[in-house]
Design goal:
heterodimer; A: mainly beta; six-stranded mixed β-sheet; five-stranded antiparallel β-sheet; 11 strands; about 0% helix; globular; B: mainly beta; seven-stranded mixed β-sheet; about 50% strand
Chain lengths: ~110, ~110
């Protein structure tokens, strides 16, 4: 069966450090992978999209890598700030190609 | 800049009651989606509409029906609510297939079935 796995344990890091979140998947051949941020009581907000032929993508302090051989994406936040504290969701396209399947998310806490 | 608007924001139902969750987007998007989010389960797709006039089942469609009323609106109906349907419901939209373009989410409807 298809699975998208993200670390269930919360990630606690100090302000200024780089946070690295992992997304592993099985039984998918995704052409695209997306990352979202979700704050408590709010809907997910899109952060980055990476295509299968792209190894890395950056946006300001965010960086995403996509390794289709390892079936893994890494999401990095450099120079992390307390405002980066949230749950981060990884998402892949379903087989129908029309909707996203989400991982369960990883909670990030950045402490001053 | 409304984006995706869901109504209501909160709702309490008794078992067996029916209700319709409303969703509207003002971005002229073709595709719309309904997800539910439960603790420890993540976001799960209930139904989606790839374009106006079409709807398809997602991962957890049982107990729900949908209507794509027009390009802007996509409603989710619970015909006979059950406690297992207590959840947070999110509507989303995207310009095209969501893999290729970002999805925009509403603020959610928090539903409790007692």
């Amino acid at each position: 069966s298809q699975k998208i796995e993200q670390n269930s344990e919360a990630l606690n890091i100090q302000e200024g450090k780089t946070a690295t979140l992992t997304c592993n998947y099985t039984n998918y051949s995704p052409a695209y992978l997306q990352w979202y941020r979700q704050d408590p009581g709010r809907g997910p907000v899109f952060l980055l999209l990476i295509r299968e032929n792209e190894k890395e993508k950056r946006k300001e302090r965010l960086k995403v890598t996509f390794d289709t051989t390892l079936k893994q994406s890494l999401f990095h936040i450099t120079a992390s700030q307390p405002a980066d504290s949230a749950t981060y969701l990884c998402a892949l396209v379903t087989n129908s190609g029309y909707a996203l399947n989400f991982g369960k998310g990883t909670s990030l806490l950045v402490t001053p | 800049n409304a984006g995706v608007t869901q109504t209501p924001k909160f709702q309490v139902l008794k078992t067996g009651q029916s209700m319709t969750l409303q969703c509207a987007q003002d971005m002229n998007h073709n595709s719309m989606y309904w997800y539910r989010q439960d603790p420890g389960m993540g976001l799960r797709l209930i139904y989606y509409s790839a374009s106006e006039g079409t709807t398809d089942k997602g991962e957890v469609p049982n107990g729900y029906n949908v209507s794509r009323l027009n390009k802007r609106e996509f409603s989710l109906r619970l015909e006979s609510a059950a406690p297992s349907q207590t959840s947070v419901y999110f509507c989303a939209s995207s310009e095209a297939r969501t893999g290729q373009t970002e999805a925009f989410f509403g603020q959610g409807t928090r539903l409790t079935v007692v």
